[in-house]
């Protein structure tokens, strides 16, 4: 028992039998189990309601595919946070407000994404909503402090405040859209969302002022894992813009969350490195489209994304997803290392994440093989 406690402390778990760690485990399991069992029922309802993506030149599906998976992820996420609050309420009033702001912003983003999935909102409308939720976070104290960012000069408050606001908006809007643009191959965004959530969770667990962030990330990670069980190729349901917006926005917002510290600077290094895959993907796509003379690079979809390039080389959606999971996990491990996280914590995170991804992928493949046997 002493050996176990000593190892737990090495990976950032002060008391493995205490209410804090147990509440994180329960939050993760509630999100996982709820989403796991809720998703098939949601799929059935989505089919009846006609909530589906139709086949086209850019999509891989050959028949209508339910696109309401984001709703399932959101519901599992919210239920787990409610359970976590019931088990172990957050006692700092400011953090309660900030978590509620994140949840409200996530709800707005999910609703916007779902409406866009079904009725195709204009890019301007989506951008205005993203600006709105960014401002919602800012007025509740979730804001990047320009003067806390390493390697940049310290400027007077009269300049620092507007620069901080601008950076926060760019952070939220940029990461939200970066994650959304990655959603083109079965299992990619669900898996990357799970990887990033777990890496940020493990990193936040190393700091005493990030308890709320740990709980929120546990809920998101569990919901992503539950969804991935039905989205690994061949997918039974996709998340649509609703799910991609939820994952991108929540990861960007939670990286600003701290119990005592309401502005962040150096703490953004890890999420930026962990999210390097969607950031690099979006950057190269935008630059490429601008070079081709496209004035609105985000409004002209094509097949120049990283996942499309990898898919063209592998000719396998499964291999593409796994490769991008590995890239995301590698970036995550590097980010943790640069943040000063101890090696045992990094290795434990990599092993746990890899095991979870193997488990859900194996279950999806096995279920698909059974479907083929029954239909043969």
Keywords:
4 strands, 14 helices, 70% helix, membrane, two-stranded antiparallel sheet, transmembrane helix, two-stranded parallel sheet, 376 residues, mainly alpha
Radius of gyration: 20 Å
| Order of strands across the main sheet | 1-2
Supply the number of helical segments: 14
Total strand segments? 4
Name the beta content range: under 5%
State the share of residues found in helices, binned by percent.
over 70%
Biggest sheet character:
2 strands, antiparallel
Structure class: mainly alpha
SSE topology:
Layout: H1 2-10, H2 19-49, E1 52-53, E2 65-66, H3 69-87, H4 93-119, H5 123-139, E3 143-144, H6 157-181, H7 188-204, H8 211-228, H9 240-254, E4 263-264, H10 269-274, H11 276-291, H12 306-314, H13 317-338, H14 343-375
Helix pairs in contact: 2-3, 2-8, 3-4, 3-8, 3-9, 4-5, 4-9, 5-6, 6-9, 6-11, 7-8, 7-9, 7-13, 7-14, 8-9, 12-13, 13-14
């Amino acid at each position: 028992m002493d050996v176990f406690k000593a190892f737990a402390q090495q990976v950032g778990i002060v008391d493995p039998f205490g209410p804090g760690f147990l509440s994180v485990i329960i939050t993760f399991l509630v999100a996982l189990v709820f989403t796991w069992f809720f998703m098939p029922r949601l799929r059935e309802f989505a089919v009846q309601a006609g909530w589906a993506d139709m086949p086209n030149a850019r999509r891989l599906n050959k028949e209508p595919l339910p696109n309401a998976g984001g709703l399932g992820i959101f519901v599992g996420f919210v239920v787990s946070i409610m359970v976590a609050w019931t088990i172990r309420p957050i006692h700092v009033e400011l953090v309660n407000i900030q978590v509620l702001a994140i949840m409200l912003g996530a709800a707005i983003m999910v609703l916007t994404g779902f409406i866009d999935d079904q009725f195709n909102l204009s890019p301007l409308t989506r951008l205005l909503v993203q600006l709105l939720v960014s401002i919602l976070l800012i007025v509740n104290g979730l804001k990047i402090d320009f003067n806390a960012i390493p390697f940049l000069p310290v400027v007077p408050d009269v300049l620092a405040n507007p620069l901080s606001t601008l950076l926060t908006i760019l952070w939220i809007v940029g990461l939200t859209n970066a994650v959304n643009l990655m959603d083109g191959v079965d299992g990619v965004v669900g898996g990357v969302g799970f990887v990033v959530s777990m890496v940020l969770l493990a990193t936040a667990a190393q700091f005493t002022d990030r308890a709320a962030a740990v709980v929120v990330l546990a809920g998101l990670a569990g919901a992503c894992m539950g969804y991935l069980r039905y989205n690994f190729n061949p997918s039974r349901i996709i998340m649509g813009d609703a799910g991609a917006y939820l994952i991108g926005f929540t990861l960007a917002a939670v990286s600003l969350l701290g119990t005592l510290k309401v502005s962040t600077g150096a703490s953004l290094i890890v999420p930026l490195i962990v999210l390097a895959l969607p950031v690099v993907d979006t950057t190269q796509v935008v630059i490429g489209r601008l070079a081709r003379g496209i004035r609105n690079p985000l409004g002209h979809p094509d097949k120049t994304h990283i996942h499309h390039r990898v898919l063209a080389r592998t000719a396998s959606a499964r291999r593409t997803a796994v490769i991008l999971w590995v890239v995301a996990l590698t970036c995550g491990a590097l980010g943790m290392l640069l943040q000063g996280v101890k090696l045992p914590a990094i290795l434990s995170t990599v092993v746990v994440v890899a095991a979870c991804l193997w488990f859900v992928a194996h279950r999806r493949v096995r279920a698909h093989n059974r479907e083929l046997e029954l239909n043969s």
